[in-house]
Amino acid sequence: MAAPTATCCAPIAREPLAETEAAELAVLLKAVADPVRLRLLSMIGSHAGGEACVCDLTDAFDLTAPTISHHLKVLRTAGLIDCERRGTWVYYWIVPAAVARLGELFSPLAEPAAV
Hints:
Residues 1-6 have low confidence and may be disordered. The protein has six helices and three strands. Strands 1-3-2 form a three-stranded antiparallel β-sheet. By secondary structure, it is α+β, with helices and mostly antiparallel strands.
């Protein structure tokens, strides 16, 4: 069996992450490690037009508006989403590069690096 090449493996299987890169990625992973935030990210990304009004998000949860705002702020601070106020409502959308960075971390994960 041939040894996997560096291009076949996800960054996490190619070589150990540098300390700074691991710290940056940990912020993203921590942000999506909460079920509410993961659902919010999914709802925003799958919403028609690629953006969602906060009014479209709050009814899906049995949480207070301040709690939803907190979760959205965590996602925004991590750089996974961005927003814009339009009148009285705030609209959110995914930042594709940040979400792609998470996906690229593990994909494609064909085989572990040869030891």
